Structure formats: structure tokens, C-alpha cells
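Backbone-to-sequence.
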């Protein structure tokens, strides 16, 4: 049986992505389990290889993901022109070539030339300079694949964290949280846990929005008026879900270990504890794509 073909985007050429990519695929264990296909340019990879001092990084150049060398590191040369690389600097070029890499990999994914897609980090500021129009990979992939059920899940072993709202300023979070949105997110997460993680009867924990999950309405009513009704309706639909929990005590008592996934209301509520527990090991998984 052939190994899976994994497409890997370069991310921002001025960022950490190229270094991490080169160091990761240089590990011989990678080609033991898959055929990696990098979407970038030979010139950019050579530049970053030289400054990372990696001596065992070798690759085969391919015209597309359709014509690759199995069991070897492959490079799809997405552009040939010279580019200016300024490590640690935000630039329009950083956004431009990150998108070229991403679009090339997405094309091959759609065509079935690769089986999975791994994306190196992009810089939101750099992407804004090319009018990208999306806050991150998940939003862009959702639009490209016309998915109604996609979801960003932070993943590390048995810890999975999903969000109701994503990259929003804090002041906009409360108005973005509705009963319908919370309910749909619970339903989507439940389905994803079954399909992608083989959980027959997944158990989901839902966080509150306010300190102490509102303390019975003393510190806010969102838990009473929005989050709890959504949870109860999800229960009526046969979903195993509990909450809303006060996030501080939930994480502090390691209660997350009892659940297959945790659903947070906003970005930092979910990602701060996730990164404290998983920094350097966790990944961002875009689930629910066709």
C-alpha cells in the first residue's frame, strides 16, 4: 500500500515556517510514514537551509503533486523569480508567496494529487497587505471548499479544543454568541468527533462566557439565556454534552481529561489553557472539510 502524500505549504517566507518545515521533514521518520511534498521555491528553501545548518535536507523537484517521487521529499516549485527575504519582517512579499504556496497546494488537494495538507504559519499583517480577506487558514479553506461545517480544533493527543467564535476583538464576542451558533457548533463538533476521531458517543464540555459562568446571573446572563438553552437542546437531540462550566476551575482541576472535546466561547478562553498544556506539541486541525 502506498504511503499517503502530504502537501506542506511554506507559510510566510520571512517567518518561522520554513525553518520548522526543513527541520521536520529532514527527520528520516517522516519519509517512513508519508511522502512529503513542499509547495515553495527552490531558491527560498536553499536560503533557509543555509541559515538553519541542516545538512541532510535533500529533495526532488516535481512539476506538481501529480508527478512526485515516492518515499522522498518533494518540492513543487510554485515560483521561480528571485524574492527578497527579511527574516522577522512583515512584508507584502511574505503574504504574496504564502498565498501562492497555499493556492498551489489546495489545487493539488482538490485534484486528489495529495491526501492531506499541512500549513506552515502565515502572518495576518502580511496577508492583509495583499487583501487576503480572511483571518486564517481555516476561514480560507472553508470558503474554498464551500464547507458549512468546518471547524478549527486545537489538538494534542487526547486534548481537543474548539471555539464558538474565533479571531474577534473581545468587545465583539458577546454579541457574536447566540443560542443558534452555540447549538450548531456543538452539533458540528459532535459529528466531527465521530467521523474524524472515531468517538462513537463523544462527550463534550462547554465553557461559560463570564467569570464563574455568570454565577447564576450575577456576572452576566449569557449562560442562562444563551449557552445553557443551547446545551439542553443539544441534549434533547441525543448529544452527550455538559456545561456551561467556569473555565478557571474546569482547567484548574484538569476536568478536561473526562471529555473528548472542550468547546470554548472565544479565542483566549480556549487557546491559553491549550497552549499552556501543549506548547510545542499541539496542532491546529481544520475539521469538517469535504
Amino acid at each position: 500500500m502506498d504511503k499517503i502524500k502530504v502537501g506542506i505549504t511554506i507559510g510566510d517566507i520571512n517567518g518561522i515556517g520554513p525553518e520548522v518545515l526543513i527541520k521536520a521533514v529532514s527527520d528520516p521518520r517522516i519519509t517512513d510514514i508519508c511522502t512529503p511534498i513542499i509547495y515553495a521555491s527552490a531558491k527560498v528553501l536553499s536560503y533557509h537551509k543555509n541559515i538553519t545548518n541542516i545538512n541532510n535536507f535533500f529533495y526532488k523537484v516535481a512539476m506538481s503533486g501529480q508527478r512526485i517521487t515516492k518515499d522522498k521529499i518533494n518540492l513543487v516549485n510554485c515560483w521561480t523569480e528571485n524574492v527578497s527575504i527579511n527574516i522577522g519582517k512583515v512584508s507584502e512579499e511574505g503574504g504574496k508567496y504564502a498565498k501562492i504556496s497555499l493556492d498551489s497546494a489546495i489545487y493539488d488537494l482538490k485534484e486528489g494529487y495529495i491526501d492531506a495538507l499541512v500549513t506552515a504559519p502565515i502572518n495576518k499583517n502580511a496577508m492583509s497587505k495583499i487583501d487576503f480577506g480572511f483571518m486564517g487558514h481555516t476561514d480560507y479553506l472553508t470558503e474554498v471548499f464551500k464547507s458549512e461545517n468546518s471547524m478549527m480544533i486545537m489538538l494534542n493527543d487526547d486534548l481537543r479544543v474548539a471555539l464558538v467564535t474565533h479571531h474577534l476583538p473581545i468587545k465583539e464576542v458577546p454579541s457574536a454568541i447566540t443560542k443558534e451558533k452555540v447549538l450548531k457548533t456543538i452539533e458540528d463538533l459532535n459529528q466531527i468527533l465521530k467521523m474524524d476521531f472515531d468517538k462513537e458517543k463523544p462527550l463534550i464540555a462547554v465553557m461559560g462566557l463570564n467569570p464563574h459562568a455568570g454565577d447564576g446571573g450575577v456576572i452576566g446572563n449569557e449562560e442562562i439565556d444563551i449557552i445553557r438553552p443551547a446545551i439542553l437542546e443539544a441534549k434533547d437531540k441525543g448529544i452527550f454534552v455538559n456545561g456551561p462550566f467556569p473555565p478557571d476551575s474546569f482547567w484548574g482541576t484538569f476536568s478536561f481529561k473526562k471529555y473528548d472535546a472542550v468547546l470554548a466561547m472565544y479565542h483566549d478562553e480556549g487557546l491559553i489553557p491549550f497552549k499552556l498544556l501543549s506548547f510545542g506539541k499541539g496542532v491546529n486541525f481544520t475539521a469538517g472539510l469535504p
